[in-house]
């Protein structure tokens, strides 16, 4: 009996996992003749081999619509109980059931008839319904044992209709009762049941099967043993039925049949299939429990299925993955790679290196491959482990992985660019015989993110010279470099290249990059022309065009885009678009429009103002000299201001020489928890300049000393100009330009011009 019970529990766990057996769609139409359920979810082996004998007679009116419902519980309940009558119909009448007819006749003949029949239906406070425990303990029924329980099976609407239609018959001999908020065998109350099979119309509903089981625990003379049987047999079946409507594991074959047939291979196959379909750790742990409980073979393939989800899924659990890994005696390369990959992007990337060392030291069945090193290098980059990354590079060279494997080569370039070691990244790139577009993209992006747009653009030109065709991402990166440098002619050439290319798709990303490039290179009309000709536009495209109008002093056009994007493209402005419009108002000094947009953006567009929006309006007010209003706006912010908001106020203080407010802004910046070192350094530099402008030299000297103690070095300013397709950069303090002497001669002549001030 205990072994059978254990098998039942195993089956229940299997149901929690779900069914993904092959050919399910073909078999789902086959109906079991005994339990009237699809054969793949047949419950015959869970139904008690001998029906439960009860003193209480159960009569259930079963609505016709419920006969073929996949979650109908009455057909299964009738198989569990030997004293249960099921009547299919919409109302109870005389002649439907012998026991009800007999009770009706007794009540008609005997005016002092005491009813032993009850019909179960939840009643409102004003209804005549009695709580079932209270009814049973009344003096008229306390000696009774052979009760008759009547229940209505259907949806809430159907059950109410059936009860009302049967009331003229039942009211002659039966009493309406309802269940109290008693603690159920499943651990919850009737209003917090874990066995709800369908969506409840309101709190307190339950299946007919659960309601009958709870009533039997109250009505039967052997209540304790009946409660145990209800739990062991009926409640277990309800748990299985509930899992049939579960979240992703909703169709399962009967695992108990396979266990009894000793078909462990089929269960193992099922477990592997189900592990691939997991959506959360609860499901995976249920599968793992089956695996351990049934003693299934713990081979590497099986563990890899479990480990794959734990380590690589977004809803996985790395600590659980590590425990599974520790149970494997001889893990292979795949298992090591799974954990190395998972930890490389986790908050603990150094663990990837730990598993790599473990692989080298203890494993005879595993060796690093071309998938191991990219993840190790990602871990080194994410963990700022530059020294360890260089050691990995040495190991790669020593074992000849870098010469021919594109994945490893790309990973090395990405590692060095992430560590800002661009010379090393370029060296790896130059050593590659057959470069591909991905490697070019990584190197270009690395240079652009480090502010080296000119070098990034040269990589693009080098790529074309080596016969590598660019993709859409590569083109957008090159256009971003042109925009950064103001390289209009090169940007035009890329535009022409895109237009003539047969393999490049002129998509929304390239179109937006072209708009940005032309706008930043001073060609706002060309930017607008490209924007209007784009086949598709998104919110990013509109934000780019609005920013272009902003920097070119066209605030009216920028503001009009808010309406146009909704009418023309059916797009609702988001926070980025509104920020671009606020920037346009700031550049043009439109205080009323900017402040009004900030106040109404949530009501008009459903966008909650963020720190960036407040920073922009603070900047707008400061440019107009309204520093006190800007401070009031900051004080009224619904969230704690970030350093960027106080930084906008500090910039305004510098322009208007407000020392007191500047000191307050710097103090607040230093108190902000999420401020970074660059923001704090910038605040010190600006405060020093404000002191100098106010002729407070001692205070300025004190700040300069503090800046020196922090090791801050001011980034030199630079400018760039494109001449004959070549970008020339001029950096403050740089004397390395090849035409330096000629440049100074021209500047000396310019200084002699009486209109020099107007030329600047």
Automatic annotation (TrEMBL):
Q: Which reaction does it catalyse?
A: a uridine in tRNA + S-adenosyl-L-methionine = a 3-[(3S)-3-amino-3-carboxypropyl]uridine in tRNA + S-methyl-5'-thioadenosine + H(+)
EC class (word)? transferase
Which residues span the membrane? none
Instruction: Provide the E.C. number(s) assigned to this enzyme.
Output: 2.5.1.25
Which keywords does this Swiss-Prot/TrEMBL entry list? Repeat, S-adenosyl-L-methionine, Transferase, tRNA processing
Q: Which SMART domains match?
A: DTW
PPR repeat copies, ranges: 436-470, 610-640
Which Pfam family is one of those matched by this entry?
PPR_1
Q: Does the keyword S-adenosyl-L-methionine apply?
A: yes
Residue ranges occupied by any DTW domain in the UniProt entry? 28-250
A single GO molecular function term of this UniProt record: tRNA-uridine aminocarboxypropyltransferase activity
One GO biological-process annotation of the entry reads: tRNA processing
What is the recorded name of this protein?
Answer: tRNA-uridine aminocarboxypropyltransferase
> What lineage does UniProt assign to this protein's organism?
Eukaryota, Viridiplantae, Streptophyta, Embryophyta, Tracheophyta
